[in-house]
């Protein structure tokens, strides 16, 4: 299903949503992570704050809706952003790591995977990752399909 098709279906249920669509795929293993969101096992994500600043892009906003895409840019589901915060990487909590739903859901696993990911992402644009690097933490709930 295309992003527009899933948005149109959800708009029939929630006509108050905006017409503007924000659709994105996870940076690594988009299919697996989208499936975890669809199953309700993944209710959070993290991204590099410096990339928002570098691209002069606004941070995600609570109360907005996003379409989660798979690796083929097909719509998997729609989520509502319920919480956004910015913290240094080394202060991310075990609770947040669990909500991300990946691997064994531990903070140790989360830090290992995300340190590698952020090091690569920031390195591609000439920036250096450190434990003090800021991360954007998002929590969300799947709203469609139910």
From TrEMBL:
Q: Which InterPro entries match?
A: ASCH_domain, DUF984, PUA-like_sf
Q: Organism's domain of life?
A: Bacteria
Q: Which residues form the ASCH domain?
A: 24-144
Query: Transmembrane ranges?
Result: none
Which Pfam families does the UniProt entry name for this protein?
Answer: ASCH
Q: Which protein is depicted? A: RNA-binding protein
Q: To which species is this protein native?
A: Streptococcus mitis
């Amino acid at each position: 299903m295309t992003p527009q098709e899933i948005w149109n279906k959800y708009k029939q249920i929630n006509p108050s949503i905006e017409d503007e669509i924000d659709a994105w795929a996870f940076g690594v293993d988009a299919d697996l992570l989208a499936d975890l969101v669809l199953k309700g096992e993944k209710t959070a994500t993290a991204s590099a704050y410096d990339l928002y600043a570098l691209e002069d892009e606004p941070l995600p906003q609570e109360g907005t809706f996003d379409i989660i895409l798979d690796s083929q840019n097909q719509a998997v589901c729609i989520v509502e952003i319920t919480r956004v915060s910015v913290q240094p990487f080394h202060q991310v909590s075990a609770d947040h790591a669990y909500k991300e739903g990946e691997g064994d859901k531990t903070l140790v696993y989360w830090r290992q995977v995300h340190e590698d990911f952020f090091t690569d992402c920031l390195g591609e644009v000439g920036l250096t990752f450190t434990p003090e690097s800021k991360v954007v933490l998002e929590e969300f709930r799947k709203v469609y399909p139910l």
